[in-house]
Amino acid sequence: MSALRSQLLSEFDWVGHGFGTRDDGYWTPQARTAALHQVHGAGVVRVDAPGHHGDGDALIAQAVNLWLEIRTADCVPLLLVDPVRRAVAAVHAGWRGTATWIAGLTVDAMRREFHSEPGELYAAIGPCIGSCCFEVGDEVAAQFPGYTINNYTRPHVDLVSANVSQLTAAGVRSERIDSLGLCTVCEPARFHSFRRDRGDGRMVAAVAIHC
Questions:
Q1: Is residue 2 over pLDDT 90?
Q2: DSSP structural state of residue 62
Q3: Is 59 helix (H, G, I), strand (E, B) or coil?
Q4: In 3D, which of 124, 90, 88, 92 has the Cα closest to residue 6?
């Protein structure tokens, strides 16, 4: 398996995680995987068992040996780890979810459900569409003041920076946020991209507590 790992999250030997490539397929063990019907919103769902858990775009858990899975092909995959309360989260942050603050809402849900302190969390952002390729219309650009780049023919949005800012605004320390810095559109041999290919291929990002 060629799934990518975050250097920060790899510090925790009790955490399994990965950001899949187009070669990995659906790499999590499905009998021990929790997933959602992703709706490009801001719904956060606490889970304690494998299976599909309805509509939503973020999963949080403290259960052991349960993989939290999200699937992306340009949207931002975000994984969170609380090493103190031993809790994890997997977030699918498309532009609509980012516009409705899903990263910050997930941090709030971990604080509410598990008593997580935001300053103790670690976060990793996997491959997604970069600002180099995320060309948008004015109506989308207007939802991202401060994260729009206007030195192109049409505006481009930096979704990674928007999500990092949401995390820090929610209390996550900037030095505990790791972005892999990989653009899904720019690397067709490595990643699925809906914008580039208009296909149904998706990559799996997932996190689990091993013990």
A1: no
A2: -
A3: strand
A4: 124
| CA atoms of 23 and 35, how far apart (whole Å) | 20
- Whether pTM > 0.85 for this model: the answer is yes
pLDDT in tens, 189-207: 999 999 999 988 999 999 9
Query: Does residue 1 lie within any of the structural domains?
Result: no
Q: Tokens 């939503």 label which residue?
A: 56
What is the rounded average pLDDT of the residues 20-45? 96
Residues sharing a CB contact under 8 Å with residue 116, sequence separation 6 or more, in sequence order: 82, 84, 85, 87, 107, 110
Tokens of 1: 């398996």
Element (H, E) at 195: helix 194-197
- Reported as a single tens digit per residue, the pLDDT across 112-156 is 999 999 999 999 999 999 999 999 999 999 999 999 998 889 999
* Segments forming the whole domain that contains residue 34: 9-209
- CATH number of 84's domain: 3.60.140.10
135 found inside a domain: yes
Determine the residue type at 148: T
Domain tally for the chain? Answer: 1
What is the structure's pLDDT at 211?
A: 81
Q: Coil, helix or strand for 58?
A: strand
Query: Which pLDDT tens digit goes with each residue over 61-82?
Result: 999 999 999 999 999 999 999 9
Residues 6+ apart with CB under 8 A from 159: 75, 76, 93, 95, 98, 128, 129, 131, 134, 147
Would 4 be classed as within a structural domain? Answer: no
Name which of 9, 15, 113, 18 is nearest 64 in CA terms. 15
**Residue 14 in domain:** yes
Beta bridge partners of 51: 34
